[in-house]
Amino acid sequence: MITISDIAKIAGVAKSTVSRFLNGGSVGDATKKKIERAIEETGYTPNPFAQSLKAKKTNIIGTIIPRLDSYAASHTVIGIDQQLKENNYQMLISNTSQNIEREIESIYSFSNQKAAGIILLATEITPAHEEAFEAVQIPVILIGQEHAHMHSVIHDDFHASLSMGQYVIEKGHRKIAYLGVTEKDIAVGVKRKRGFQKALEDCPDCEARYFESEFNIPAAQQAAERIFSCNFNPSIIVCATDNIALGVLKAAYQKGIRVPAELSVTGFGGYDITEVIHPGLTTAKFFYHEAGATAAKNMLKLIDQEEVEITSISKYQIIERESVDILV
Amino acid sequence: MITISDIAKIAGVAKSTVSRFLNGGSVGDATKKKIERAIEETGYTPNPFAQSLKAKKTNIIGTIIPRLDSYAASHTVIGIDQQLKENNYQMLISNTSQNIEREIESIYSFSNQKAAGIILLATEITPAHEEAFEAVQIPVILIGQEHAHMHSVIHDDFHASLSMGQYVIEKGHRKIAYLGVTEKDIAVGVKRKRGFQKALEDCPDCEARYFESEFNIPAAQQAAERIFSCNFNPSIIVCATDNIALGVLKAAYQKGIRVPAELSVTGFGGYDITEVIHPGLTTAKFFYHEAGATAAKNMLKLIDQEEVEITSISKYQIIERESVDILV
DNA sequence: CTGAAAGCGCTTACAG
DNA sequence: CTGAAAGCGCTTACAG
After folding, report:
1. What pLDDT does A304 receive?
2. Domains of chain B from N-terminus onward
3. pTM
4. B71 vs A: CB within 8 A
C-alpha cells in the first residue's frame, strides 16, 4: 500500500506539496515533474477514505429506488449513472424493495455516509420522508413525483395522458375503460387520470368507466377480467402503465378476444417490450434515461449552489402501433 | 456533527472505551449504560470513513455488471444485494455499458476503494481481467462464466440445453435451426450449443443447421429472416436466449408465419415477459436471483477465509408453454 | 474493565 | 512556490 508520504519521499518534497499537486494547486514545474514521475512509478492512487475524512465531503450521490427490476427504474438509474460518471461523481444505489421504511432508513444512511446528495425515485412522499430530508440537510432531487418544496424531475403525466385521450377519441373510440392505479400515487394514479378526463371533456358522446389495478401484471389480468365481465363492453382499455396493458393483453388472449379487432389497448411508459410484442402496443413513451440524466445534472448544480428550477418536466411522445383499432 | 469524543465526554469515559463498546469488546455494565444513553441522546453514528481508514477494510462488495437494463443482470444484482444486506455488507454497483476496458478499470477502482471483494457478472474473461484480479489481491467471484482458477457461480448451460434438445426431439421436431451467439461467450455461445448437439447425438434422423446472432432483438430478427430465406425450412428455431427468441417471434409475425402452427420457437433464460406474451415462450429458466445470492454467500465465506468450491452450479428448469408445436 | 497515546492517509491554514 | 504542523474521527496495542 503506497501513500502520499511515499510519493513525497520519492519525489523529495513535502506531503503537502504532493497534496497540492493532486488537488490542482500551484506547484513549480520542476517539482510537478518529480511528483508525476513518482506517481507513475508507483501507480499511486489516493486513499478515498482519508480524503473524505479530512474534506468532510464525498463525490457520492445516493440513489434510492423502490425496485431494480423495472424498465423505468433501470433506465432512469442508467441515465443518472452516466451523467454522474462524466462529472467524476459516483452513484450509490439503495434498492428498497418497495419498502417505505427502508426508503427512510436509506436517507439517513446516505447522509451518514456523507453523500453529497440524494436522488429518490419517488412513488409516494410521506411526512416521514419530509422529516428525513429536513434532518439530513443535503440536496435532494425527486424523480417521478412533484413536490411543493423539493426539487423534482417529473414526467409530463398530465399532458401525455391528455394527448393519449385525444388520440383515442380521434380514432373513434367512445366507450372507454380507464384502468388506473391508486390515487396515493399522484403521478400515475392522479395525473394520468386527470389528463384523460380532461380529454373527455371535449367529447360529449363519450362514455367512460374507471377501474383500478395494482402495478403488476397478474393484478392487471384480474382487473381486465373484471372489466370483461361487467357488461360495459368498452371498445378500448386505456391503461395507466405498459405493464398493466401487458396484463390486459394477456387476459384478452386467454379469453379469445382479438386485439385490436375486438378490443383496443394502450399503455404508458414506452418499455422496449411494447415494440416487440404482437400487436405492438400504442403507448405514451417517457424518457427515463433522459430524466435520470436531468436529475443528475440538477443535483450537481445544487451541490455547486447554483439555482435549479423546483420542477423540471421531462417530455413524452405518443407512439402509435397496432393495438388501437381505427373506428372512423 | 457528533463524534466519538463527544460520546466519550458525555458518558464520562475514554474514546477507546466507547470504541470498544461499539465493536463489541468487553465493557462494564455501568459504563455500557452510560455510553448507550449518550448515543441514544445524540443519535450518534460512527463516521464510516474514519472507521475504514483505520481498520483498512470495508464492508463493501463491488459488483461489476455489463448492463443494468437486462432481466438477467437486474435479478442477479437483486439477489446479491439482498444477501449482502442481510449480512451487513454493502453492494456497490459499477455499470460498464458492455465496455471491457471499463470492467478492468472498475476492478482497480473497487480495489482502491478497499472493497472487501468483487463480484463480476462475466461475459468474457480476458488476460487483462486475469491480470487485474491477480494485482488487486481481493476475493473475486464470477457469475455466469466458469474459470479454471477463479471462483464462479454458473448456470447449468450444458444440461439445460441438453434437456431442451431432448424436449424438442421428443415433441417430434426433426428439422431444427439452432440460433446461437459468438463462441467468445463460453457459457451462452459454446455450452448451450454443445448441450444441444449432445441431445442430437441420440437422434439419427434429425437434421440441424446452426446460425448466429447478436444478443439484441433487432439482430435476432435479422437472423431469423436469414433462416426463413435459406430454404432450410425448419419446424423449430431453438434460440440461445429469450431475447433472441423474442426477435424470432417478431420476425415470424411480420412475415405472417404462425407460431407454433408453422414454426416453433424456444428460448433460454425464463424472463418474466416470456410468460406474458402470446403464445407463451417455452424456455429453459435460470435462477438469476438465486445465483446472485449464492455468489454473495460464497463471497462472504471467502472473506472469512472459509473454503468455497471453485465452481457452484445453479439449476435450471424447462418451462413448457405454447410456442412449441407437438408433432407426434 | 478502562484509559492515554499513537497512528491510519490525507488536507488545510499558516509561515516563510 | 514550498514545508512543518495540526487535525479529521476512528481503532489498536499497551499499560494499568
Report:
1. 85
2. 4-46 (1.10.260.40), 60-155+288-315 (3.40.50.2300), 157-286 (3.40.50.2300)
3. 0.91
4. yes
